[in-house]
Specification:
By secondary structure, the protein is an alpha+beta fold. The chain starts with a strand and ends in a 6-residue tail after the last helix.
Length: 73
């Protein structure tokens, strides 16, 4: 696990937790959990991909995050 943090994301501040997991000899997987909270609800988005495919999926996930909008009212 990496330290959890609040992140500014498109005017929102989700709590972000990230970690690296690996099962046996399979390639390591990078995982990010984004938790968007308000008084009465929470939206959780989990994104992951194999670390060896970072050059493929890293830019795609970044574009997804830049376009993400969650209304919490």
């Amino acid at each position: 696990y990496y330290p959890a943090r609040l992140q500014d994301l498109n005017g929102m501040q989700p709590l972000v937790a990230s970690y690296r997991r690996q099962l046996a000899n399979n390639p390591p997987v990078l995982v990010w959990e984004y938790r968007f909270m308000n008084n009465s609800s929470m939206v959780q988005i989990i994104m992951s991909y194999r670390q060896t495919e970072d050059d493929i999926w890293g830019p795609v996930f970044q574009k997804c995050l830049e376009s993400l909008r969650i209304q919490t009212d």
